[in-house]
Amino acid sequence: MELKNIQRVYLVGIGGIGMSGLARYFHHLGAVVCGYDKTSTPLTDALHNEGIRVIFEDRADWIPMSFQKPCDGTLIIFTPAIPKDSTILNYFRNNGFDLQKRSQVLGIISRGMFTIAVAGTHGKTTTSGMIAHILKDSGKDCSAFLGGISSNYNTNVLYGNNDIVVVEADEYDRSFLTLNPDTAVITSMDADHLDIYGDHSQLEESFRLFASQIKERGVLIRKKGLPLDGGYTYGIETNADANGTNIRIENGSFYFDFNSAVVSIPNIKMGIAGIHNVENAVAAIAATLRLDISADAIKLALGSFKGIKRRFEYIVRTEKHIYIDDYAHHPEELRAAISSVKKLFPQKKLTVIFQPHLFSRTRDFADGFAEVLDMADELLLLDIYPARELPIPSVTSDMLLDRMKLPAKRKCGKQEAVDIVRFEKPELLLTVGAGDIDQLVQPLKNVLENV
Q: Is pLDDT above 70 for 195?
């Protein structure tokens, strides 16, 4: 299907972060766009306010008339997260429609464009956001499909006036294998999505396949130490091709120096916090220097980069209370978030509220979760968020508590967590998780701003 011929788009699972970006993109192009999702969220509310119709009942008779029969110019996009027995999904499947996965549509959009694709089990959303912001802020420009809401632009899709596109390349369901990038950045290859891959070796093989699909004369930029051959390496305090050094905190902000064989950029001030984000910035610099953007423009852009919502996002920052929210849902992401908070505020007692995401991930990394959560001073643990999964016998949040050594730990419900924060008034609070824990952000903000 040619992009220019698409006139009508229906998205099954329109409320997902990647799917909603495609909805906005096709709406921007002038196509008729609508879709279905299971529940109403702030993201679906935003789509509705932008003129995109969304329904929340899985009923074929609620599909608009213009999508009742297949015809030229109609595209149906679905996400693998939608259950296979979905009535709407099967209506389209059984009636001769052209169905495409979200990742396949990204492949169609990026075909013929200069594509920068950022992959990794963690770090990809912030890194792709940084690259897109550097391109926008420097005047080079780009389009972008991000896996989160950019705090600078308050959206997950950016529209450019050139042929450069930045895409977050998702390893889930091997989606990134639909892309043929000019520049590929790989930030990490830790074990994850083992419900899809079976074991870590299969995940690594999928990343190797992704790296092999880079266009001729394209470049692979990879974190040093990953089990990949070739490419341009980056890291922090290493002997990589691109290196971040002299990392320090001054007046609550992270600073570092960038060094490569070609250029040195001293005293880069980060607009966001975290050692892991310094590493992401080194990758973003390595990618954008190849597009003839000046060192000064890159330095300015990193200083004004406000990050991605729910990626180490400051919610409350007063003299009495610091509250940070983060999307971390893998042990290594949790380690990065908790370590960064403790480095920034070493004298404060850290209270963590964590919601595990997926029964399979909780089972596969139970010991890792327990070890990292023990870094907190106090833990409030919510029930596992199931997402696309059915319960697994004996896999519960209590299983994590039993493995932990931290004395100050307890399981609670979401409302109970808000009540505990209201009573204890923690000076340093971190909420982490990829489920619906984001529903707590506003109530917790209200509590801490009014004490």
A: no
